[in-house]
Amino acid sequence: MSARLLDASMLREWAHAAVGELITHTDEINRLNVFPVADADTGTNMLFTMRSAWAQANALSGVDDVAEVAAGLARGALNGARGNSGVILSQILRALAEVIAEASADRGGAVAAVDGPLFAAALRHAVVLVIRSMGEVVPGTVVTVLQDAADAAEHASAGGAEAAGVVCAAADAAARSLDATPGQLEALARAGVVDAGGRGLLVLLDAMSTTLTGRASRRVEYVPKPPRAEEATARVAAVPQFEVMYLLSGCDPEAAEKLRSELDELGESVAIAAASGGSGQYSVHVHADDAGAAVEAGLAVGQPSRIQVTALTGAASTRPTGGRSRARVVLAVVDGEGAAGLFAAEGAHVLRLEDDAPVSAKQLLHALVNADAGQAMILPNGFVAAEELVAGCTAAIGWGIDVVPVPAASMVQGLAALAVHDASRQAVDDGYTMARAAADARHGSVRVATEEALTWAGMCKPGDGLGISGDEVLIVGDDLVAAGAGLIDLLLAAGGELVTVLTGAGVDDGVAAALGDHVHERHLGTELVSYHTGHRGDALLIGVE
After folding, report:
1. Portion of the chain with pLDDT greater than 90, in percent
2. From residue 480, how far is each of 339, 484, 510, 517, 528 by CA, in Å?
3. C-alpha 370: how far from chain center
């Protein structure tokens, strides 16, 4: 099997892919969530926990030490763990980090990449840590799926399989184990579902398999049967009032076990997960009717922080889909490293085009989730097809994110809209003001002709500059400067005080300087600003305000 090594770079890539796959499968996983509490948030909790882990790993983008990246994943997951499933995920990532660190110490130097035996050992250690954090093992849950995946990984590793082969074996075993969970747990059989946490684990293993092999595994979509009315009523009646989570520091192992006993008396679904290295930090989770008492129990043995209390009673659809901030952000779709830096410097979150491929609804939703905001103004900047924009915004609204797409057809229009963004205004007012600013920015582009052709402005030959506005060639010049100057004159014919020129990949700095001289000489009182954005396609993007 030809595959890539699971080194630091691949570990970061997997974390990013895992977030994307969890976004895709979150609704499916949430629909399966009937045990231990039918609160329909397992997928959401795993997503936000993994997103926190990925953020920590992404902050180590220049690090080549796989142990350090794995430690970052574990740290991020523990700090951002949400729900029972998030705590379990944090322990799986902790196991990976600890096994790599121990191997590095044993070998007297940093491990370059995770091989088959190391990955198998990590899954086995994860079983131990997850059981320790949960306090007990219930057959038919994610613990069972994890155990079966670890067994298969050890078998494949003993047979000499490389890391990719071991991961694939673990994923396939997890899929088989997942299919068997309804026969092991009555609550699952009654609802006609497989275990939600186990489904989430399979998503993560499949994402790693795809990262290493480049081939995606095909899995069935797990759809629950509709529960009978009396079953649905019974489930709601059995749900405690609150889910309580917090980080606990300054706590020793003996005190942590004392806390577990007290929380067991207060409620159910108790999970206490320790951070790596014996730091005395724990992630605490419990479902209880008395949220205050659950927090006070933590105060008696340490210092709680990041306390989260969520109501569990009532319809799951009325619950928030995560602990997003209600702050408003601007998400700008851009092309080019310079453009990414420019929009980010103006306060926008950036979604960069990859390999000149169109932006999908999934990528848009992924970026909105990563922005971690309750409200978002979207600047598509001409890079998102209408149907993908609508699909992405619709999905985001379903997640509880208030989305306002701003009709910006070019990055120059996006910059004009971003300049008037004001998060202190109501969203509708902010969106209207940004849309007006974008519409008032007349814009066009300049590209280099590649063949002889007849245009609305006359014949062009290869190497000519073509000034384009409204999808029509209006200027033919001998070069980029001539075409750019002609297009600027045309756009300024209706007035304007500011000309913005964005230069693309391979465009010499002298082009922008020459256009600046042209505006200074021909259009007194008009200012020209230029930025090298490095975008592909059109050589120049020009806007006039």
Report:
1. 53
2. 20, 6, 11, 14, 16
3. 4
Residue 408: the pLDDT is: 94
Q: How far is CA 260 from CA 253, 269, 270, 367, in A?
A: 11, 11, 7, 37
Pairing of strands 472-477, 465-469: antiparallel
User: Residue 459: beta bridge partners?
Assistant: 454
What's the rounded Cα separation, in Å, for the pair 502 and 338?
9
Long-range contacts of 483-486 (CB under 8 A, 24+ apart): 483/446, 484/446, 484/511, 484/515, 484/540, 484/542, 485/514, 485/515, 485/518, 485/522
SS3 state of residue 327: coil
| Whole-angstrom distance, CA of residue 209 vs CA of residue 170 | 9
Q: How many CB atoms lie within 10 A of CB 222?
A: 20
DSSP annotation of 183: G
List Cβ neighbours of 136 (8 Å cut-off, separation of 6 or more): none
Spatial separation of the C-alpha atoms in residues 51 and 65, rounded to whole Å: 21
Per-residue pLDDT reduced to its tens digit, 342-396:
999 999 999 999 877 788 887 888 888 777 777 899 999 999 988 888 888 887 7
Neighbours of 439 (CB within 10 A): 15
Could you report the per-residue pLDDT of 450-499, keeping only the tens digit for each? Answer: 999 998 889 999 999 999 998 899 999 999 999 999 999 999 998 889 99
| pLDDT tens track for 324-344 | 455 789 999 999 999 999 999
Residue ranges in 161-252 assigned as alpha helix (H):
163-180, 186-191, 196-213, 229-238
Backbone angles phi, psi at 60, to 5 degrees: -105, 35
Establish how many alpha carbons lie within 13 A of residue 39's alpha carbon, considering only the half-sphere containing its beta carbon.
Answer: 25
Which residue type is seen at 391?
A
* CA 455/CA 282 separation, integer angstroms: 69
Q: Return d(Cα 254, Cα 472) in angstroms, integer.
A: 75
Contacts of 235 (CB under 8 A, 6+ apart): 34, 38, 227
Here the tokens at position 448 are 């280099």
SS3 letters across 236-247:
HHHCCCEEEEEE
Tell which residue, 46, 48, 80, 74, has the closest CA to residue 60: 74
